[in-house]
Amino acid sequence: MSSEALIILIYILVLASFLGFELIAKVPPTLHTPLMSGSNAISGITIVGALLACNEMGYTTISKWLGMVALVLATINVVGGYTVTDRMLKMFKKK
Amino acid sequence: MSSEALIILIYILVLASFLGFELIAKVPPTLHTPLMSGSNAISGITIVGALLACNEMGYTTISKWLGMVALVLATINVVGGYTVTDRMLKMFKKK
Amino acid sequence: MSVAIELAYLIASILFVLGMKMMNKTKSARKGNRLSALGMFIAIVATLLQIDAISMVEILACIVVGSAIGLYYANKVEMTKMPEMVAIFNGFGGLASFSVALSDYFLRTEVNMESIELVTVISIIVSVFIGGLTFTGSLVAYLKLNGNISGSPITFKGQHPINLILFLGFLTAAFFTVLDQTDPMLIIILIVIALVLGILTVIPIGGADMPVVISLLNSYSGMAACATGFILNNNVLIVAGSLVGASGIILTQIMCKAMNRSLVNVLLGGFGQTVNEAQADGPSITVKEIGVEETAMLFDGVSSVIVVPGYGMAVAQAQHVIRELMEQCEKRKIDFKFAIHPVAGRMPGHMNVLLAEANISYDKLIEMESINDEFPNTDLVLIVGANDVVNPAARNNPQSPIYGMPILNADKARTVIVCKRSMGKGYAGVENELFGYPNCLMLFGDAKQTITKVVSEMKEM
Amino acid sequence: MSVAIELAYLIASILFVLGMKMMNKTKSARKGNRLSALGMFIAIVATLLQIDAISMVEILACIVVGSAIGLYYANKVEMTKMPEMVAIFNGFGGLASFSVALSDYFLRTEVNMESIELVTVISIIVSVFIGGLTFTGSLVAYLKLNGNISGSPITFKGQHPINLILFLGFLTAAFFTVLDQTDPMLIIILIVIALVLGILTVIPIGGADMPVVISLLNSYSGMAACATGFILNNNVLIVAGSLVGASGIILTQIMCKAMNRSLVNVLLGGFGQTVNEAQADGPSITVKEIGVEETAMLFDGVSSVIVVPGYGMAVAQAQHVIRELMEQCEKRKIDFKFAIHPVAGRMPGHMNVLLAEANISYDKLIEMESINDEFPNTDLVLIVGANDVVNPAARNNPQSPIYGMPILNADKARTVIVCKRSMGKGYAGVENELFGYPNCLMLFGDAKQTITKVVSEMKEM
Amino acid sequence: MKIGVLKETKTGEKRVALSPDVIKQLIKKEFSVAVEQGAGTGSNFSDEDYKEAGAVVGSIQDVFASDVLLKVNLFSKEEVAQMQNGSACMSIMYAYNYPEILDEMNKKSIMSFSMDAVPRISRAQKMDCLSSQANLAGYKSVILGANYLEKIFPLMMTASGTITPAKVLIFGAGVAGLQAVATAKRLGAVVEVSDVRPETKEQVESLGGRFLTVEGADEVKVEGGYASEVSAEFLQKQKELIQSKIKDSDLVITTALVMGKKSPILVTEEMVKSMKKGAVIVDMAVESGGNCEISEKDQIVQKYGVTIIGESNLPSLLSTNASQLYATNISTLLLHLATKDGFNLDREEEITKGVLITYEGQVVHEFTNKILNK
Amino acid sequence: MKIGVLKETKTGEKRVALSPDVIKQLIKKEFSVAVEQGAGTGSNFSDEDYKEAGAVVGSIQDVFASDVLLKVNLFSKEEVAQMQNGSACMSIMYAYNYPEILDEMNKKSIMSFSMDAVPRISRAQKMDCLSSQANLAGYKSVILGANYLEKIFPLMMTASGTITPAKVLIFGAGVAGLQAVATAKRLGAVVEVSDVRPETKEQVESLGGRFLTVEGADEVKVEGGYASEVSAEFLQKQKELIQSKIKDSDLVITTALVMGKKSPILVTEEMVKSMKKGAVIVDMAVESGGNCEISEKDQIVQKYGVTIIGESNLPSLLSTNASQLYATNISTLLLHLATKDGFNLDREEEITKGVLITYEGQVVHEFTNKILNK
Ligand SMILES: NC(=O)c1ccc[n+]([C@@H]2O[C@H](COP(=O)([O-])OP(=O)(O)OC[C@H]3O[C@@H](n4cnc5c(N)ncnc54)[C@H](OP(=O)(O)O)[C@@H]3O)[C@@H](O)[C@H]2O)c1
Ligand SMILES: NC(=O)c1ccc[n+]([C@@H]2O[C@H](COP(=O)([O-])OP(=O)(O)OC[C@H]3O[C@@H](n4cnc5c(N)ncnc54)[C@H](OP(=O)(O)O)[C@@H]3O)[C@@H](O)[C@H]2O)c1
Ligand SMILES: NC(=O)c1ccc[n+]([C@@H]2O[C@H](COP(=O)([O-])OP(=O)(O)OC[C@H]3O[C@@H](n4cnc5c(N)ncnc54)[C@H](O)[C@@H]3O)[C@@H](O)[C@H]2O)c1
Ligand SMILES: NC(=O)c1ccc[n+]([C@@H]2O[C@H](COP(=O)([O-])OP(=O)(O)OC[C@H]3O[C@@H](n4cnc5c(N)ncnc54)[C@H](O)[C@@H]3O)[C@@H](O)[C@H]2O)c1
């Protein structure tokens, strides 16, 4: 990776982190758990990495096996996370 | 510019814009004018562009002249902007 | 990587940001979650488009298995078990990042036999460390919450020094890994230390602090994803990961504040002293606690409320904030009354004076005889600083000094919340068994302060 | 471009973000501004390091000239002329971006004779358009505020169609420029249209709306800088420019809301109708509105508050919620008092009865004579349903039926918020000019309801 | 300029025209003040207090030798006789009721100012003794009623049973009426109010009282803040409403005045009969004829099991406060009209025009003349 | 079982032992009730009201022919003389003060129950007439004081000046004292309280009053809710504190009782001299000797410019409510002791043991015996 490319990635890291800070500045306590759960689902974005890791030729490499383990786990995280969050938030519906 | 490089610039644009939105979500009215003035000074960042534009060989090119005009203007904007903002904010000092 | 895919990632990133923003408000939270799910979907589909046909079968199989497990548990779990669920999902996320990092490491060192750039090595180490720690930490949190291991803090001497030594060991191993990227021994050391540290930092923490820990681990798993993004040079991982990492830290801080703990305390992993030991002597009663938010949610869901004020309301001067509570309830069309026990307080008419001061109209105040039959049909009774006047011992226990005194049948209501500072006794100095009843929840704290919080929670709903 | 310089830019960007964040709170605003100035300094120095020695002399000369002018005017200008100053500085910023873009254009086409990439061409056009428009627009705003041209809206028939035609003309010329980058005629057309549009969109707008316009133009100049960043492929320009662009839009929106105008209205440039005709008969007063959230924020930032209660507080029965407001303020260590006018309300001691009911201790209530000298040193006065008792006409206007009545000098405070339902008159039936004072903001609505909202906003902060 | 303060002579009057605090301020403005011995006793101001404040405490003769004489109540014939020719005097006069006193004053060319005639305009509020005294009277009416009532005001739920709150019915929501509402409400009573002026509804509610709306109420004319006489139809409807309410009332306070007229009868003998045993009526309009048919001035009547209090001088029962406020009122008016060098009248000015009754041997006050010449 | 209600004979007593409402409930339980003619007049209960409730209203002879006689105050020798041998009677007796009456009762073997001796335990609260009457007395003491005071209670900022709030100083935060705090506070006064029992601090503050803490207060012993005598040292310190506070007070209310003893002197003559002119003292302990040195029982004393009210029977001034509550108390006790078929005593039971004074010709009450045999 060129150092310029790295710097640009750092730009993105920094800006996104700031954004993360700002976005959660004020949350009512009732939303703490759903929010935690929802952002946990987002952190399942590592699924993209897992997919790419799986995309290796041949069967026997440890890399591929690790990738597949990662893929299953990340999928659980993503699918389960979003579903659970949605269930929680359903309760907030005004009667 | 490669399209990948462009996309990365767009990432930065998007994230910074979001951040801009979030940062100013709630400002007390008394701070409206100082904030406007302060962010105006930041927009004087174009001074960097002006500096780069001035950095051309030879004297006669229109580019260079434009660059120098830009530099003077941008400097006024930056220096004047920050100074004026500071003066305004001095008034808010807690007694 | 084609521009189209990069654009898809950009859109996914934007959707994550918007989704997270909308999760901030009760009204839009659900839509926000769906938006972020949409972003995830787009990111996954875009990635799948890059996949070689050969790997596709296994990949889809993995996805199907993962989805099935995720869906099954997410739908099966009871509402009360949500925190456990979040913990374990989070652990899986951490483990996934960990695995991806290792996968990439082995791919480069073992398969391609190439040497790795510095940035990438560091990223891999970070990802392994944080991912592994997140995994075991979350697992411990899950087991604690689930009751598989004791919820109370498990502490031993030298905890902190051991953690420190392990961490320094990790740093050393990391340093050598950077120098010699191909030694699998070093990597195994790194892995083991990360996993052990996850266990060691969470095990000494008490059950009540678990939500904070989970939130922090959640932030960590975001950071792990971010590190993975650096390994793979992938923007969407960086954006999403750092969003979660940063927002998780803030959320943790907010939660700490709500629990009156400092973040430093949490970050050092040194917290875990138990919360409010009920200081009751004599035959102690096991009580269930309820928090301010849940109280507010309970109020939000009922259709009839009776408030039983007592001397504690007078001491706390909580009458004004109780009027606000009344206003909030009436806005929600909840039937709201006060049950006035004739000897509540310390002088005849004590409650009357205070409630009149708070401008509560006389027709809301119901005498004991008239209201006692209404309790069984009442959804929620809030007892504010009253004790003796709702003590069922007056009915049940001929030995009790208050036996024979008529009491308010608050215990007969569907749910009873008792707002008082502690397990302290009332004027008569006797234990109150009501507090241990199955339909009774204790809301500990000064009446004015806690109810103020309940009201502001309700206002936000 | 070396890594060090890129890192410097990164640091500058971070400082801009932090600075802007800190500008949000009265307490930290000044520090924030300095932080952002530091960022700018770092960016400039880093850039200078790239400069060839040959150009250095002229560059330094330009910087010295610019700094001297900027410093001179910034220090000379009176406080009341601040908005003009901001407008003209902003115009210069726009013109600078415009010039840089043109400079780059000519450099590539005339000097280097190379063909330009699509992205760059578009960026140049955008930069020229926005920069030019910002310049002339700001100039007009400056002249209007300075009184060089009439502050009242200058309108003529067909304004909107002409603007539209010009804009379409610009788009056409832009299209052809993209096709043929070397035709200077096209560039001149673009320049002229941009400059003319700037004038035309601002000239029809009235003086009272100028702050909104300036804020919008400020946002535009940020966008111009951002476009310039795309031309030069420079991250710090993009970050800083888009920060300013986005925050400027939001700020404009907030200001519109405070003035009760819609942003669409402003964005279309079709604004300029005077602000909410106060439904008063007789000489109408132009007032500035404030919302609940901003009120809460104002309270959050001050150190002394005086509340002036009047008959409206009694009608709304707002005394209890005002006590809550007091509690919130006292939590923030804000000095909080009540100024009791002897004839506030409709009977002697009316306010005393109500405030005593709300349990506000007597020592918070200050008589008119004692408190009147304190107003000039008070950050914020909240007038709750009072009208006649704070009407400066009693001091100033011998024709007024209340002339000669002693009043509370609430108008002397730094900021005054008036909470009442409408522009309705008080007991004496006279207009209150205070409401139109520059330091006065109207918080319309029933006193109890609005202050309840303010309090719950404050609780969330 | 020398100011004289006489001791009040009316029976039961405990107020005094100037308080030591106010005298201090006058002395600062270089007036001199003479106070009759013992003038302040009823208000708990001792002669020492006055001396400390800078006044001369002297015999009645000393006081009569002043440029302006101040009192609370109207000067008697004897007092006028002792005044110096061409001097001035100020008090609550209700001048139109006492033409004979005015004649005496005119004979001696005495300039008189009436405190009750201060116009009810914003800038004159500080001189308005009708408001200041009515305000105290409103408070006192409730205390007095509460003291005579054999029940307590607030709702009380006790081990020995629940005591229901007292019901207080108030007629007239003027200054006195509103203060009565506030005081009764504070003590925990349920308060209902009847008034002819519809705008008082909001005012009553702002104090937590319930307003009894009579239909046809919009026909009432209001002149300068005072209710003018109302239609017979209105009164009839009001009566019916009251009849239904008064039966349950524990305390009735009547404050309904119509300026310059006999006050309306609102509580008839019939109604009193229908009331609960032990109920109490405080008739604050008793001085001008009474709102209750069977109230008697300065008497406490027990009839049909009801106690009817006809105290005509309620402010005097709160003499300390009443004198403090009255002193502020009268001194503010005096300072408006005079400097240390003497009176300085602008006879076109609204307040001066409003309060000046006799001047250079003539009754110059419009309203007084209107009533007297009728 | 026949219950007889006698008319009270004590001067100034307007209460009555049973109210029509309570009689209705007794009749439902198949008791029969005879009420002496005119017994309820003072409390605004007419003979008709009693008849409607189901009582027989008859002559005094009819009433004496009952199984149990009820009164508020102790029976006189003459009344005991007219009672049937072996019948029963109940009233507030303060038996230890009247051995001669007890002798008379014992001679006729009359069973007597004293209302003031109800033990202060939770389940007896409904019979506790000391609380119910003290509560009313506390309210009344403030109303009475406010009525005698020549100032108003609340702070009032008016056009004619600001009236500062009245300062009320209350001694003793028992039932009466606390109700006085609440009432004075409601009316807008600034209230300060002194008590020997430290736990009353929190109670006073819960009503918005300020508690004056005397150092050494922890030494006070409390027996069954009553304050026992306190150390001389404490009293001295308390005195000093009071001396500094009482000078500024407008209204002083004293409620400090020590059971079975003369009440402590808290306000000395010296202190009264130091008070403001026009101040008022209400001495609620006057019956048992008074907390104020110069208060006189049932007199209103004016001394040193201070009004000292020594009304010994404040509840009687709120006769309607007082009778209602007393009737609940006495009927609850009666129902505890008897059924429609007569008394049914369990002499080991705490309440019965507490209230039974004479039984089968003997004084059987421990505390009474203790005092009498001293
Ligand atoms: N009404 C009368 O006339 C009278 C007179 C004398 C005695 N009594 C007796 O007083 C008792 C009255 O019963 P009650 O139920 O009203 O009171 P209680 O039984 O005395 O209980 C009051 C409770 O309030 C809680 N508390 C105190 N301060 C508080 C605060 N700031 N915030 C929240 N809670 C607070 C205390 O628990 P924590 O310490 O855990 O917070 C206490 O258990 C009866 O036993 C009655 O017989 C009544
Ligand atoms: N104190 C006395 O003894 C006495 C006696 C008689 C007359 N006065 C006269 O009364 C006046 C008192 O002055 P003031 O400033 O207290 O009152 P004011 O001048 O009468 O003004 C009251 C204001 O309250 C607003 N208001 C009414 N209801 C409201 C609600 N629910 N929420 C928010 N605002 C509400 C009204 O404006 P909107 O309609 O726009 O909401 C009105 O302008 C003086 O002129 C005085 O001379 C006094
Ligand atoms: N401008 C000022 O600053 C100022 C000063 C003082 C008073 N005022 C106003 O003047 C008004 C009158 O004050 P006041 O106390 O002297 O009034 P008042 O003593 O003349 O009358 C008392 C009240 O009785 C009412 N009333 C008359 N006839 C009635 C009837 N038949 N039934 C029921 N009620 C009846 C009147 O409407 C009035 O409210 C007040 O409301 C006050 O707002 C204004
Ligand atoms: N268990 C129950 O249900 C119940 C029922 C009624 C009363 N009580 C309690 O009994 C207590 C006593 O009630 P009471 O009103 O009959 O008391 P009381 O009339 O015997 O005494 C009045 C008060 O005077 C105080 N006092 C005595 N000496 C004093 C001194 N030198 N200076 C200042 N204060 C002095 C006492 O402490 C007491 O508070 C009450 O506080 C109440 O809580 C309990």
Automatic annotation (TrEMBL), chains A, B:
Q: Does the keyword field hold Cell membrane?
A: yes
Q: What does this protein do?
A: The transhydrogenation between NADH and NADP is coupled to respiration and ATP hydrolysis and functions as a proton pump across the membrane.
Which catalytic reaction applies to this protein? NAD(+) + NADPH + H(+)(in) = NADH + NADP(+) + H(+)(out)
- What keywords sit in the KW lines? Cell inner membrane, Cell membrane, Membrane, NAD, NADP, Translocase, Transmembrane, Transmembrane helix
Topology in the membrane? Multi-pass membrane protein
Task: List locations, semicolon-separated.
Answer: Cell inner membrane
Per its record, what are the GO molecular function terms? Answer: NADP binding; proton-translocating NAD(P)+ transhydrogenase activity
Q: Which Pfam families match?
A: PNTB_4TM
Question: What InterPro entries does the entry give?
Answer: NADP_transhyd_a_C (IPR024605)
Task: Tell me the domain of life.
Answer: Bacteria
Q: Where is the NAD(P) transhydrogenase alpha subunit C-terminal domain?
A: 10-94
- Its recorded name reads proton-translocating NAD(P)(+) transhydrogenase
| GO cellular component terms listed in the entry, alphabetical order | plasma membrane
Against PANTHER family, the record matches this protein to: NAD(P) TRANSHYDROGENASE, PROTON-TRANSLOCATING NAD(P)(+) TRANSHYDROGENASE
Q: What is its EC number?
A: 7.1.1.1
An annotated GO BP: NADPH regeneration
Transmembrane regions:
6-25, 37-59, 65-85
EC main class here is translocase
Automatic annotation (TrEMBL), chains C, D:
Q: Which GO terms describe its cellular component?
A: plasma membrane
Q: Give this protein's Gene Ontology molecular function annotations.
A: NADP binding; proton-translocating NAD(P)+ transhydrogenase activity
Return the InterPro entries for the record.
DHS-like_NAD/FAD-binding_dom (IPR029035), NADH_DH_b (IPR012136), PNTB-like (IPR034300)
Q: Which Pfam families does this one have? A: PNTB
Task: Show the stretches that span the lipid bilayer.
Answer: 6-23, 35-51, 86-106, 118-142, 162-179, 185-205, 237-256
Record family assignment:
Belongs to the PNT beta subunit family.
Q: Where in the cell is it found?
A: Cell inner membrane
Catalytic reaction annotation: NAD(+) + NADPH + H(+)(in) = NADH + NADP(+) + H(+)(out)
Membrane-topology annotation of the record: Multi-pass membrane protein
What EC designation does it have? 7.1.1.1
State its role. The transhydrogenation between NADH and NADP is coupled to respiration and ATP hydrolysis and functions as a proton pump across the membrane.
Protein name (record): NAD(P) transhydrogenase subunit beta
Going by the UniProt record, its keywords in alphabetical order are:
Cell inner membrane, Cell membrane, Membrane, NAD, NADP, Translocase, Transmembrane, Transmembrane helix
Q: What residue stretches are annotated with the NADP transhydrogenase beta-like domain?
A: 6-456
Q: Which top-level group of life is the source organism from?
A: Bacteria
UniProtKB/TrEMBL annotation, chains E, F:
Q: What's the catalysed reaction? A: NAD(+) + NADPH + H(+)(in) = NADH + NADP(+) + H(+)(out)
Q: What is this protein called?
A: NAD(P) transhydrogenase subunit alpha part 1
Q: Name one GO cellular component term.
A: plasma membrane
A Pfam family recorded for this sequence = AlaDh_PNT_C
User: What is this protein for, i.e. what is its function?
Assistant: The transhydrogenation between NADH and NADP is coupled to respiration and ATP hydrolysis and functions as a proton pump across the membrane.
Identify the residues that the record assigns to the Alanine dehydrogenase/pyridine nucleotide transhydrogenase NAD(H)-binding domain, covering every copy: 146-310
What's an example GO BP annotation here?
NADPH regeneration
Keywords assigned by UniProt, alphabetized? NAD, NADP, Nucleotide-binding, Translocase
Organism per entry: Algoriphagus aquimarinus
Q: Which domain of life is it from?
A: Bacteria
EC number(s) stated in the UniProt entry for this protein: 7.1.1.1
Family according to the record: Belongs to the AlaDH/PNT family.
Q: Which NCBIfam families match?
A: PRK09424.1
Query: Top enzyme class of this protein?
Result: translocase
Residues in Alanine dehydrogenase/pyridine nucleotide transhydrogenase N-terminal domain copies: 4-137
What GO molecular function annotations does the UniProt record carry, in alphabetical order? NADP binding; oxidoreductase activity; proton-translocating NAD(P)+ transhydrogenase activity
